[in-house]
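Comment thread on ticket #2218

A.B. wrote:
> Attaching the input chain for the structure job we discussed in standup.
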Amino acid sequence: MRIDLHTHSTASDGTDTPAELVRNAAAAGLDVVALTDHDTTRGHAEATAALSGLERPLTLVTGAEISCALDGVSLHLLAYLFDPAEPELLRERELLRDDRVPRAQAMVAKLQELGVPVEWAQVARIAGDGTVGRPHVAAAMVEVGAVPTVSDAFTEEWIADGGRAHVVKHELDPFTAVRLVKAAGGVAVFAHPAAVKRGRTVPEEAIAELAAAGLDGIEVDHMDHDGPTRARLRALAADLGLLTTGSSDYHGSRKDVALGQYTTDPEIYGEITRRATGAFPVPGAGGRPA
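C.D. wrote:
> Ran it. Output below, let me know if you need it in another format.
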């Protein structure tokens, strides 16, 4: 089984529609794919509907990547198989989404002050119906020639955490986020916890505290973790009794990573599905739940 538990669609900041994502996941030979758009579940219905048109079995795991911050350090929590209608978690997701537009507009204003000729209308066009985020601002910077690639925008010179054009957004306390995800019947996994190229990361002591508060796992096999980092995180997870996942963090053409480039062990996936009570994996194309 090939299992990718972290992908994005146009419902947030990916370039594939949810239906295209499902079709591309099947074409890439995946058996299971999780749709984890930022702070939204809006793409789930389209992704689920697309399963029926596939030529090979593929199971969809519904989820979201929730924006959090601890002591001024941004972190992301992957929430799997939660009840999307649970009111408290739904309210927090809406607050997170609502803050994204004024935040992106403020980044555009800062970039203009720095001499980068991006416009809000340009960013809005790139985002389309998706939940606007920094990758859309970065794509606009590429369009005007300020940086060669989206990744080059995520530096201290530009829009990385603490960068010259960075603007802080509304983010959940991760302990609150873990509690809400668990209360909604979901499973909580800390996304790319040691991705230092994105900015500051939380210390391992904080991961231990999150584990004590109910965190289920950490994402270990990820494009932003080198070999020694993965080994260190795997050892930390073993010490803390945490699950370890692997995934592509696929964003379509916006990032240079392929679906299934990193995957999750089937036994870990099975444990995630056993722990979840808020929702269940959705089988498609004549398949059965993996």
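A.B. wrote:
> Thanks. Noting for the ticket: The radius of gyration is 18 Å.
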